[in-house]
From TrEMBL:
<dbReference type="GO" id="GO:0047372">
    <property type="term" value="F:monoacylglycerol lipase activity"/>
</dbReference>
<keyword id="KW-0442">Lipid degradation</keyword>
<dbReference type="InterPro" id="IPR002641">
    <property type="entry name" value="PNPLA_dom"/>
</dbReference>
<comment type="similarity">
    <text>Belongs to the patatin family.</text>
</comment>
<feature type="short sequence motif" description="GXSXG">
    <location>
        <begin position="19"/>
        <end position="23"/>
    </location>
</feature>
<comment type="function">
    <text>Possesses non-specific lipolytic acyl hydrolase (LAH) activity. Hydrolyzes phospholipids as well as galactolipids. May play a role in disease resistance.</text>
</comment>
<keyword id="KW-0378">Hydrolase</keyword>
<feature type="active site" description="Proton acceptor">
    <location>
        <position position="176"/>
    </location>
</feature>
<feature type="short sequence motif" description="DGA/G">
    <location>
        <begin position="176"/>
        <end position="178"/>
    </location>
</feature>
<comment type="function">
    <text>Lipolytic acyl hydrolase (LAH).</text>
</comment>
<feature type="domain" description="PNPLA">
    <location>
        <begin position="1"/>
        <end position="189"/>
    </location>
</feature>
<keyword id="KW-0443">Lipid metabolism</keyword>
<feature type="active site" description="Nucleophile">
    <location>
        <position position="21"/>
    </location>
</feature>
<dbReference type="GO" id="GO:0016042">
    <property type="term" value="P:lipid catabolic process"/>
</dbReference>
<dbReference type="InterPro" id="IPR016035">
    <property type="entry name" value="Acyl_Trfase/lysoPLipase"/>
</dbReference>
<protein>
    <recommendedName>
        <fullName>Patatin</fullName>
        <ecNumber>3.1.1.-</ecNumber>
    </recommendedName>
</protein>
<dbReference type="GO" id="GO:0006952">
    <property type="term" value="P:defense response"/>
</dbReference>
Length: 374
């Protein structure tokens, strides 16, 4: 906004925005056209946090005081016989927010991973796929409801798409995309690489493996602090229920999702380092979130405000050695004084310059075309 004015929006600066689970909903919010202005998204980046602060307590109902323990017992029983929450409130706000908007109608390309429990395989929804196949052009609302349907927490989502020209239809039975790609960075890179290989109209003259043209910003949702991780002596004694629920978390699911995310971090970082482009990758992740704050559905005002504070503090905190290894190559001598806010400022300038360059080329092409026609 400081660089390009009050009308600047995230969707104007990225060829592709990818998100998994709640990240899929954020992706849709940043890329879905507004009803009042089709050239602008329905939500600005600054509106995301207030949206979650307002709606999370209703999506994941939480009781305090006298009824707290009774409420926990009820949820334990519900976990045994079905999902912890029915998802009705979440489904309503997503449908109200996104309406009938389809995947191919987004302001910029989006990629949202899901997992189809009937086909037993990943299903990746993207603007690219939606343009080439009407059966993949689902309502964004359905995709977001599906990708956020975390097992045991929210119910799986069923919907169908129809090709009205041929009469063909396709059914989807999907759950949380985190089972496929908790960190969707590689999925997004793969989608763009495929479009470049196909020489699509958006990437007609770029080489498929020319990663020097890629600029990647990857935002994590945080990892628990180191001292709560369990050693083998403790884990060896765990039974079924301890693996599924301990210290406010589900250790088995937590380990699975974090392992998937960490592997993606490693692959992408090594890829960019191998071609000397580490300065074109920015990974933001907090590795020391208090364990109680990691819980997916702890929506007390204290915890939600605590998460906001964690994010604000992360921006101003000097980069650790591990952060420097991922984001800086070679590592400058003054790296200990750099913060994520500094890196984001740098990337914002790169994105702004690239957008201005593209707009100038569009204007130049328009002039050439006009002169040719006259």
């Amino acid at each position: 906004m400081d660089l390009d004015g009050s009308n600047a929006r995230i969707a104007n600066y990225f060829d592709i925005i990818a998100g998994t689970s709640t990240g899929g909903l954020i992706t849709a919010m940043l890329a879905t056209p507004s009803l009042s202005n089709a050239k602008q998204p329905c939500y600005e980046a600054k509106d995301i946090v207030p949206f979650y602060l307002k709606h999370c307590p209703h999506i994941f109902t939480c009781r305090t005081g006298f009824f707290c323990w009774l409420w926990k017992i009820v949820h334990i029983i519900k976990l045994i016989i079905g999902p912890k929450y029915n998802g009705k409130y979440l489904h309503k706000i997503i449908n109200d927010l996104l309406g009938e908007t389809r995947v191919k109608e987004t302001l910029t390309n989006v990629v949202i991973p899901t997992y189809d429990v009937k086909c037993v395989k990943p299903t990746i929804f993207s603007t690219f796929k939606a343009r080439s196949s009407s059966l993949m052009d689902a309502r964004l609302a359905d995709v977001c409801i599906g990708t956020s349907a975390a097992p045991t927490i929210l119910p799986a989502h069923y919907f169908e798409t129809v090709d009205y020209h041929t009469g063909a239809s396709r059914s989807f039975n999907i759950i949380d995309g985190g089972l496929v790609a908790n960190n969707p960075t590689l999925v997004a890179i793969s989608e763009i690489t495929e479009q470049i290989r196909l020489r699509s109209k958006e990437f007609p003259e770029t080489k498929p493996l020319d990663y020097h043209r890629y600029l990647v910003i990857s935002l994590g949702t945080g990892l628990p602090e180191q001292d709560i991780k369990f050693d083998a002596l403790h884990v060896a004694k765990w039974g079924f229920f301890e693996w599924l629920g301990r210290h406010f978390t589900m250790p088995l699911l937590l380990m699975f999702l974090h392992a998937s995310s960490d592997m993606t971090d490693s692959h992408v970082a090594n890829l960019f380092k191998s071609i000397g482009c580490s300065d074109q990758l920015l990974r933001i992740q907090d590795h020391n979130i208090p364990i109680a704050s990691v819980s997916a559905d702890l929506t007390t005002e204290k915890n939600l405000q605590g998460l906001v504070k964690i994010g604000e503090n992360l921006l101003q905190r000097p980069l650790s050695k591990d952060d420097c290894k991922i984001n800086l190559e070679p590592i400058p001598k003054d790296s200990c004084t750099l913060t994520y806010a500094d890196l984001l400022t740098r990337f914002a300038k790169l994105l702004s310059d690239e957008r201005k360059f593209r707009l100038q080329n569009i204007e130049l092409d328009a002039r050439v075309l006009a002169n040719h026609e006259t």
